[in-house]
């Protein structure tokens, strides 16, 4: 892991759980170097404002203690070791709940950790470099870049969500963020190999192709709604300077990286601060998933949800209510394919789980400060998923 020299004059400190969009009434540029709260050592806890030019010179009011986050972490911290000892207890509600916490946390912790590292590194990357990689112009090329970036990042839904929220703060368009989120969680490289074994190569490749189509179409729709003024634009894009050659930006970024233990610790600290919103809702979703497991056995999916419109809508309802990590949703989706004989339900369980995931919706709302953007994700995506799911059930059974 690498650290980067801090530059106190480049930005003020950020102590909130999630970075706030730029506020026009913040410090004037001329006074930015004098009005920084704290100093270089504590500047940009959330990983914002590391690029040159003082693009992010906005000091923020220190956030209150996040009792909700710490309460969720405390519950998980207690339930996890209990679940390790009671994981074979499938008869009692406490045993099923704590066992579910133990199993799901083991599936998702690595994705969150890698997501924190990516967020910390992204926080050190200049916005101009990030947008040079994704493309400023948006459009089809920008959607393709964002979608492919989501596919090639081998992270689960919780880890990829933290990276997606940081991309928004780095200046990615709303559509690019949505395309990135929809393309990535369950069709990462490792889960693709798992799906190969569970449902076969042909179905897996078809699912991946259809998810890419949904991601690109959804991204284009979101950017179109932003241009029409029906959704708010990304305020961080206003912080972008003039376009610079990508090779030059990358060279400057690499030269600024220095390996050190303190720099690595800073990246982890800033990554945790930047991913705090995602961690909060992931822990809440983990607790809720454990409770639902205790009262709704997942084996019932195979018998309740057949290849009918009723089964398809029940699948949509189930995947909306039940918070399942991408690793957890993959075997359930395979069960819907193999035991229920419903490929459309299997695809719907995977895709609608991403589009209606309340962790994702709440994280988008907290990052963008817009309920409209957060709620438009399922509004735009779910009809596409249902249509494709119905077609798959019709012709794939």
Give a structural overview.
The protein has 397 residues and is mainly alpha-helical. Helix 2 runs antiparallel to helix 11 (276-295), helix 4 (139-152) runs parallel beside helix 6 and helix 8 (201-227) runs antiparallel to helix 17 (371-396). It has helices at residues 67-86, 93-124, 127-134, 139-152, 157-169, 174-183, 189-199, 201-227, 246-256, 261-274, 276-295, 301-304, 309-321, 326-338, 343-355, 358-368, 371-396. Helix content is 65%, strand content 0%. The chain has one domain (8-396).
Overall body shape: globular
Estimated structural class: mainly alpha
Determine Rg (CA atoms, Å): 21 Å
Order of helices and strands: HHHHHHHHHHHHHHHHH
Q: What is the topology?
A:
Layout: H1 67-86, H2 93-124, H3 127-134, H4 139-152, H5 157-169, H6 174-183, H7 189-199, H8 201-227, H9 246-256, H10 261-274, H11 276-295, H12 301-304, H13 309-321, H14 326-338, H15 343-355, H16 358-368, H17 371-396
Helix pairs in contact: 1-2, 1-11, 2-5, 2-10, 2-11, 3-9, 4-6, 4-8, 5-6, 5-11, 5-16, 6-8, 7-8, 7-14, 8-17, 11-16, 13-15, 14-15, 15-17, 16-17
């Amino acid at each position: 892991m690498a650290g980067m020299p801090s530059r106190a004059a480049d930005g003020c400190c950020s102590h909130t759980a999630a970075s706030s969009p730029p506020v026009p009434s913040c410090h004037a540029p001329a006074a930015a170097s004098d009005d920084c709260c704290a100093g270089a050592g504590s500047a940009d806890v959330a990983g914002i404002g590391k690029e040159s030019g003082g693009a992010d010179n906005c000091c923020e009011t220190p956030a209150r203690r996040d009792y909700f986050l710490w309460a969720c972490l405390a519950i998980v911290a207690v339930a996890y070791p209990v679940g390790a000892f009671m994981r074979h207890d499938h008869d009692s509600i406490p045993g099923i709940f704590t066992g579910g916490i133990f199993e799901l946390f083991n599936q998702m912790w690595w994705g969150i950790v890698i997501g924190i590292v990516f967020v910390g590194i992204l926080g050190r990357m200049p916005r101009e470099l990030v947008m040079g990689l994704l493309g400023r112009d948006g459009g089809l090329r920008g959607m393709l870049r964002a979608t492919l970036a989501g596919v090639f990042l081998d992270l689960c839904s919780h880890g990829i969500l933290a990276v997606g929220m940081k991309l928004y703060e780095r200046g990615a368009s709303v559509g690019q963020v949505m395309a990135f989120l929809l393309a990535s969680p369950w069709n990462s490289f490792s889960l693709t190999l798992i799906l190969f074994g569970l449902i076969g190569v042909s179905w897996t490749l078809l699912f991946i192709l259809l998810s890419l189509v949904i991601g690109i179409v959804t991204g284009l729709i979101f950017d179109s709604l932003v241009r029409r003024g029906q959704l708010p634009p990304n305020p961080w894009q206003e912080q972008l300077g003039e376009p610079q050659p990508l090779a030059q930006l990358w060279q400057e970024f690499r030269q600024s990286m220095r390996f050190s233990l303190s720099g690595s610790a800073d990246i982890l600290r800033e990554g945790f601060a930047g991913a705090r919103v995602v961690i909060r809702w992931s822990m809440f979703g983990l607790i809720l998933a454990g409770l639902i497991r205790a009262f709704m056995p997942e084996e019932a999916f195979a018998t309740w949800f057949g290849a009918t419109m009723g089964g398809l809508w029940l699948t949509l309802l189930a995947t909306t209510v039940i918070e399942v990590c991408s690793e957890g949703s993959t075997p359930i989706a395979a069960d819907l394919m193999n035991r229920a004989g419903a490929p459309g339900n299997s695809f719907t369980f995977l895709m609608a789980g991403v589009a209606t995931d309340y962790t994702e919706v709440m994280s988008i709302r907290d990052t963008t400060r817009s309920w409209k953007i957060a709620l438009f994700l399922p509004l735009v995506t779910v009809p596409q998923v249902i249509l494709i799911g119905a077609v798959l059930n019709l012709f794939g059974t």
